[in-house]
Amino acid sequence: MAGKVYLIGAGPGDAGLLTIKGRECIEKADVVVYDYLADKKLLTYASENAELIYVGKQANNHTMKQEEINQLLVDKAKEDKIVARLKGGDPFVFGRGGEEALELRDNGLPFEIVPGVTSAIAAAAYAGIPVTHRKVAASFAVITGHEDPSRAESGINWKNLAVGIDTLVFLMGVGNLPHITKELIANGRPGSTPAALVRWGTKTQQEVLVTTVADAAADVEKHGLKAPAIFVVGDVVNLRDKLQWFDNKKLFGKKVLVTRARQQASKLTGKLEALGAECIEAPAIQIQAPDDNYAALDKSIAGLNTYNWLIFTSINGVEYFFNRLENSKLDSRALGHLKIAAIGDSTAEALRKYGLKADIVPQEFKAEAILADMLPYIDNNSNILLPRAKEAREVLPEGLRKAGAKVDVVQCYKTVTAAGDYSNIIKKLENKEIDIITFTSSSTVTNLLKLINNKIELLDGVTKACIGPITAQTCKDNNIEPDISAQTYTIDGLVEKIVDFVE
């Protein structure tokens, strides 16, 4: 397949604002070339074999010069590769996408432009500032706050711009704010005109500074506001008081450390971010195949006809069991003769995906509760299969055996301490940059402690949120006092309890 370059607008920051076409282009790309302002979550859409190349440019810190980026795109396309060029915002709104496209055209290489949501509109909208409003502003302009330094004269018509447009949005203008505001006032824009700066617009670390044209430069210096930020000028800024919606969410500004396994963290992260939290995913655990490489589980599946009960204690247990069931060329019909018990609504929901409804789901999601519910149905003829994690407690199998049942406990997965560099997390904890830590299992507690070298003092002042009493007890056993213990032992229950605590 001939090489081709897609110049993709990655949007203003919120990964959810990427277009569908943009995602499709990333998914099929051989090479992804991405900027500083392109959210790193977008890289998860790339294939495992894709080459990822960072070419970010910050003030006085350019990974590559623009000419080098242009040549990189040309070289990769000439290798017959599909290239996804991810650019913050929209590629044709001060994104130098035009320069890159011209270079490709000059080299006879095909390209497509995939427009993106520009921060000029989106960052203002997330701050509750509409760039137009029928009763306030009938026009708006987007202006660069950082002109091409090689130009002999300014390309901005300050005289007409200052008084001829209702709403002005300057991009990349924080460093030049004294000059921008001086020109506006000198050309007729009243110094009292409402203005706002929106830093990291659309992201959970968004900051909004409301000011006036005359006071903007001094206020930015006073509050230490840094790039990247847009500068909005106009009466529409006054609408923020009524239209503010993003930065008044229940968890906005809270920095939450999510310690769940990477393949499971997205659900919890998504719910917290929907409430405005900034999530730092740092998995303390990693889920792996059991020590015997499924030998015991496969043997139990081969002998399913000898059991009359099957118990699942987690979503992972369900997923790993059914993966091995399929590996044995079987499906849910092989379980038709069995009674099934499940700890928790989430585990029961995972079973429903395979067309199965659990016979017993205790109201309290822990081993003691499922044991109490099952005891009336257990006798000496009960043969029970319990596929679960290697690290699980013995309360359930011991209680069933005391009731006369024969119980086969088979390991279908294990949790181990996650691999990776935790120095950045340790630094954040040392600098008090984390507000809340979530613990979704006992293993996330013990393994986090390993990853921070058992420095429990790093957790002082951080809110510890546990998914339930068993996890909370593990915290206490390790000299950590939990602040939150969910009464409903699910992700939804944990998030609800965190919101209650914060409020």
Automatic annotation (TrEMBL):
Residues 267-496 form the Tetrapyrrole biosynthesis uroporphyrinogen III synthase domain. It comes from the Bacteria. CDD domains: HemD, SUMT. Residues 4-216 form the Tetrapyrrole methylase domain. One of its GO terms (molecular function) is uroporphyrin-III C-methyltransferase activity. GO terms for biological process: methylation; siroheme biosynthetic process. The keyword Methyltransferase applies. Keywords: Lyase, Methyltransferase, Porphyrin biosynthesis, S-adenosyl-L-methionine, Transferase. The keyword Hydrolase does not apply. Its EC number is 2.1.1.107. It holds the Pfam family TP_methylase. PANTHER family: S-ADENOSYL-L-METHIONINE-DEPENDENT UROPORPHYRINOGEN III METHYLTRANSFERASE, CHLOROPLASTIC, SIROHEME SYNTHASE-RELATED. Belongs to the precorrin methyltransferase family. This is uroporphyrinogen-III C-methyltransferase. It comes from Pectinatus brassicae.
